[in-house]
Amino acid sequence: MSPDRPLQDVSQAVELVRRHVQPGATVEVGLSDALFRTLAEPVFCDVDYPPFTRSLLDGYAVQASDVVSADGAPASPAAVLDVVGQIAAGAVAAGEVGPGQAMQINTGAPIPPGADAVVPVEDTQPADDGRAVRVLRGAQKGESITARGTYVTAGREVLLPGTWISPLEIGVAATAGATRVRVYRRPTVAIVVTGDELVDVDQVPRGAQIRNSNEHILDALVRQSHCKPVRLGVVSDDRAAIRAKIEAALACDVLCITGGVSMGEFDFVPEVLSELGATLHVHKMATKPGRPTIFATTPTGRAVFALPGNPISAFVGFHLLVSVALARLQGRQPAQHREIVATLRGPVPAPGDRRSFQPARAWLTAQGRWEAEPLSWHGSGDPFGMATANALVMRPAGSPPADAGDEVMIILVTHKG
Amino acid sequence: MSPDRPLQDVSQAVELVRRHVQPGATVEVGLSDALFRTLAEPVFCDVDYPPFTRSLLDGYAVQASDVVSADGAPASPAAVLDVVGQIAAGAVAAGEVGPGQAMQINTGAPIPPGADAVVPVEDTQPADDGRAVRVLRGAQKGESITARGTYVTAGREVLLPGTWISPLEIGVAATAGATRVRVYRRPTVAIVVTGDELVDVDQVPRGAQIRNSNEHILDALVRQSHCKPVRLGVVSDDRAAIRAKIEAALACDVLCITGGVSMGEFDFVPEVLSELGATLHVHKMATKPGRPTIFATTPTGRAVFALPGNPISAFVGFHLLVSVALARLQGRQPAQHREIVATLRGPVPAPGDRRSFQPARAWLTAQGRWEAEPLSWHGSGDPFGMATANALVMRPAGSPPADAGDEVMIILVTHKG
Description:
The first copy, chain A, is α/β, with parallel strands linked by helices and 417 residues long. The first copy, chain A, folds into 4 domains: 10-25 and 186-329, MoaB/Mog-like domain (Molybdenum Cofactor Biosythetic Enzyme, Chain A); 27-49 and 150-184, Molybdopterin biosynthesis moea protein, domain 2 (Alpha-Beta Complex), CATH 3.90.105.10; 54-146, Molybdopterin biosynthesis moea protein, domain 3 (Molybdopterin biosynthesis moeA protein, domain 3, Beta Complex); 339-412, Beta-clip (Beta Barrel). Chain A is built from 7 helices and 26 strands. The first copy, chain A, has helices at residues 10-20, 64-67, 167-175, 214-224, 239-249, 269-275, 311-329; strands spanning 26-30, 43-44, 54-55, 59-62, 79-87, 101-105, 117-120, 124-127, 132-135, 145-146, 157-159, 180-184, 188-194, 198-199, 210-211, 228-235, 254-258, 279-282, 287-288, 294-297, 303-307, 339-344, 355-364, 370-374, 391-395, 407-412. Chain A has a 6-stranded mixed sheet with strand order 7-4-6-5-9-8. In chain A, strands 16-13-17-21-20-18 form a 6-stranded mixed sheet, sandwiched between helices. In chain A, a hairpin with a 4-residue loop joins strand 8 and strand 9. The first copy, chain A, is elongated and about 95 Å long. The model of chain A has no long low-confidence stretch (mean pLDDT 91). Chains A and B meet through helix 3, strand 15, helix 4, helix 7 and strand 22 of A and helix 3, strand 15, helix 4, helix 7 and strand 22 of B.
């Protein structure tokens, strides 16, 4: 590796991830397990929908000609119709509706033979002790009736492959009779943390030690991305140990390894990746933080991300690159442009010669616009200043400092609600 | 219940939910289980952070006075210093750095005694076969050094109660040594679906039957809200059966029951709720769809939502009201204003006398603005037209029709990634 290798622009790096990571394997699952996955095969509806001609509302099924005058206006005096029965949702009418007759009907219940319109209950009055009904307005033929198959006819494709399954798509699949669907498998993501200085969270760091927070952050990020984390623990700054751990990690779809990628003498990760025949597509990014970020693919098609050992730099690298790979593996359309315009509520320093990402707390105003308050943050070594951040203020290299009131682009980094 | 009872404005209804639903019980969990929950007690950091004075980058620890001239400019000729050792992250220096000396140091490693600045490796050249280093620029005292406790001193509160725990907060808690944290319990949500017309998804509907999609949609919505669904199945349109089911459901924190709330003769839910001593806060909302929506609380403090039997109306009611209750129970700050300005990419009809919600597909443009394409949708009886929706176009009652190019308010209803 050469320290002179040029820094990669973020959008080029994202493009390289998109190009080199392909959708993963698929699996058939029960409908409930399909939530937050991507459909790999279409869903067809096996029946007409609605499956029968039905009432849109609670009211009376009538013959429209009984309740209008010849000119289409309400009958005058108001029509009084004999009530010949009632139909609840789920029931089928015992008889039919003839001229001068009405049948009480509930929302969703099948229209009885003979009727061709439904008058809402609000536009009626009971008459003759409930044995009749006075209809206070006219009705068009077909009014408040939904014919069988109006929305979908049997055999139609109702969900396309590539659809992300949210609760609404669960509802569509359930209505279509799809008890099982084929979706993309949840990728497994190995998490390896390098560094002789790391101790567990339940230890008190002594001397030159610090706590291993990276493993916890990455575990959470992987779960937030609907993937399965596989924690492989801490590996010391030893070339053979790192190689063994990386080889083990390649049983997973993706490897995230933190530390060991800057220019220090003990940074073996890039060398080991080369030894294993991996192709390095991204080596250093023109970002601050997050410069020493590697994206590589192995001969067996695994994606490897080596992120900076600094937790915040690792977090930024995950959002910029790893999240794109995890979306691709799950068969998602390339993620939509995630930068949003926001008005600053405080100053942001000039970024210098690399694109900068600054933690911020962003919110929507009552007018539906975004505002962003930069957090008090001491730089990428400071994990505490990132607490409660839900956005990164993104500033292009070479920009001037920005101040309260300026419009900037932000990236939302977490679902807060 | 009176059919003349006035329709409730949505924002009043939301306010009633906020007022009558209080944060739930709390529980202590391992850090990993705290993701996507709300902190109920503060997290304190048990150590200084950083826990020792450390290097910000890879380079050489030096005495600043060795590498600058008296006027603070780089030493001329460039200083050549003896390399007296190296310190990796996790190691403590064996000796100290004296005048004319330098020690190679890695990012995050402790500053050796005697040194008071770090020069980045990029600004140096090896000399004397690596036994010495040529320093090409000057350095300020303290440069690229982070003193122990710069970010946090031991005992400081680093996460406040009420904080939503995303991956960043997991990182903060891990750094602070919090292996267990106290969070709000995940609420349990009973799901009951009423209707004699309902059959399971794996059945083919006959006669007046339709499939029970509501249970699946609600199950998914509850999971999306980080709560635990408890499916209690379908209950027929029978007063005693509905009462028994509602009583059983009140073991959960929240009950969502669909159907049985419009004005038909077979709609027993409001009556049963009154019998059980529940207070009805919201009975009908001035929304389209979603008018027959009930919010009630029981004498034992359970929140009950009776939603329309129509799946899409139930979906809208869940987003407008139930989601607010679930956030409150989980100790969340009142949800931020979730309406966003978007530019329409197609027409939306006039809403009439109730606030209307129309499914749409929304996306961010490269300029960071939202656009929304209304979906082809036949109205609230049509579950298929909602597929792939990620937003609802919200139009105030009495608005004129809106067209492509108009700015409207939208509500995002699902995370698409």
